[in-house]
Write a structure and sequence with these properties.
Elements (H helix, E strand, L loop, with lengths): L5 H7 L5 H16 L11 E5 L10 H10 L4 E7 L5 H11 L2 E11 L18 E7 L6 H27 L9 H5 L13 H16 L3 H8 L8 H8 L6 H12 L16 H10 L3 E5 L22 H11 L3 E4 L6 H14 L2 E4 L21 H17 L21 H14 L5 H15 L1
């Protein structure tokens, strides 16, 4: 008999077992369809949710359900060096009736560009940028996984060296990469292992040895020499803090990681032009991830530091030269002034704007009220256009938003007009059967034309 208690299903949807997660998503979907489970649907969307396939407390199905509960219209999975969450995200979202997108995030090399000697959007490295590949068509998920596999393999080799460097610091805690770090990941399922896994393993070691509270806080400020803000100190002094390990990880990432971090090389960070070419070849939408100068980090894991704002026009021109069709950014991280300047630069250059907030901690809310600001209203339309792009492309890459000979467009539409058209298509889909309704929509539109 199918479970019908939503509280039990909420636990099952984050189970380690895939069949249990999908079963829970279908059971919750049945309750939703039957009117026994409801929500208030908001205008908010999020195309950048991390899952357990990189680093997150949420399995892909659980991320979809948390987004549904929060009232989001769209949820998108983005994992570092992995697209392993994609199929589960698509299946769970369809079961729940929430629109979805899938993609991946990688570090790409700008070393052979005029900006190669600068920090661009990566707090850890000069000449290396974070970028996303959004809207991967379903039939090319395996191609994306094959593209990412060697990147993840080389990253694993560097991870081992990072753990060795950590152990060489001579702290009271030692880490074993295979015993302590890898089991925290989903590497065997095509997931990646990141610096956050290493720091999380370190956090768990400290909590286990020192407990939660004064002894651990004293170790951080004394032995590790970390300056803790009053807010962080209060959180780490509270043994009942449900986000304790994630808060501790954030402190270590911003203040201690540089002591043993090892820079990635070109073998782990393919040239940005290569990533863009690959993304376009599979009908996806490669996007540069704008960070902007940081004054205060909402997630607590970034120091105040300057990034692209001092050379934004030069950067945007370079993105066009490389072939990027889009820029993605996170409204909670940026001021209205930063966003306005970025938006004007993108509009002048015909770059699509995509939004998302990188959920990777239990402390973070799935809601993003900043999306409701007038300056962000067009980002909601872009997100729905991204949904349509991905689902219609399953019927053929010629139906992609940037496909050069898309039969759904007449000649001469501007990018804004194309986004508006595809936004309408995305909103019209039956989100319980997005691919079936997208195929029907394509057939009907072709017949009309």
């Amino acid at each position: 008999m199918m479970e019908t208690d939503p509280r039990k299903l909420e636990v099952q949807i984050n189970s380690p077992a895939l069949d249990e997660r999908i079963g829970a998503a279908k059971a919750l979907g049945a309750l939703i369809r039957g009117g026994k489970l409801s929500r208030k649907v908001l205008s908010e969307v999020n195309n950048h949710v991390h899952t357990t396939l990189s680093f997150s407390p949420y399995q892909p199905a659980a991320a979809a359900y948390q987004a549904w509960k929060a009232g989001l219209g769209i949820v998108g999975s983005i994992d570092h060096d992995s697209i392993g969450a994609a199929r589960e995200m698509l299946d769970a979202s369809a079961a729940l009736g929430i629109a979805s997108t899938v993609g991946f995030e990688v570090r790409a090399s700008f070393l052979d560009t005029p900006l190669g000697d600068r920090k661009i959007n990566n707090p850890d490295s000069k000449g290396i940028v974070y970028m996303c590949v959004h809207g991967v068509p379903r039939q090319h998920i395996d191609d994306a996984a094959a593209f990412l596999e060697p990147i993840s393999r080389v990253r694993g080799q560097r991870n081992r060296k990072i753990v060795d460097a950590f152990n060489a610091l001579g702290l009271d805690f030692k880490l074993d990469y295979d015993a302590d770090v890898v089991p925290l990941s989903r590497r065997s399922d095509g997931g990646s292992v990141t610096e956050r896994h290493i720091l999380y393993a370190f956090s768990l070691k400290m909590i286990d040895a020192l407990g939660k509270g004064e002894a651990l806080v004293s170790y951080l400020s004394g032995k590790l020499g970390l300056a803790l803000s009053q807010k962080v100190r209060e959180r780490l002094l509270d043994p009942e803090n449900p986000h304790y390990a994630y808060d501790l990880l954030g402190v270590l990432k911003s203040g201690y990681l540089p002591l043993f971090y090892i820079q990635p090389g070109r073998d782990e960070c393919p040239d940005a032009r290569e990533v863009v070419r690959f993304g376009l070849s599979i009908g996806a939408i490669p996007a540069y991830a704008y960070l902007g100068d940081v004054s205060q980090s909402p997630t607590g894991d970034k120091k105040a530091e300057k990034f692209e704002d001092g050379f934004l026009d030069e950067l945007l021109d370079l993105l066009v030269d490389i072939g990027y069709p889009a820029v993605t950014y996170m409204p909670p991280r940026n001021t209205p002034e930063q966003m306005k300047r970025l938006q004007e630069g993108c509009k002048r250059r015909g770059l699509m704007e995509i939004s998302g907030v990188d959920i990777n901690s239990s402390r973070q809310s799935f809601n993003c009220p900043e999306m409701l600001m007038p300056i962000c209203a067009h980002l909601v339309d872009s997100a729905w256009a991204l949904v349509a792009h991905e689902k219609l492309s399953a019927s053929g890459l010629e139906y992609g938003l940037f496909a050069p000979s898309n039969p759904l467009f007449s000649k001469g539409e501007t990018l804004d007009e194309k986004i508006a058209q595809y936004s309408g298509y995305g909103r019209s889909l039956d989100q319980f059967d997005p691919f079936g309704s997208a195929a029907s929509l394509v057939n009907s539109l072709i017949l009309v034309r």
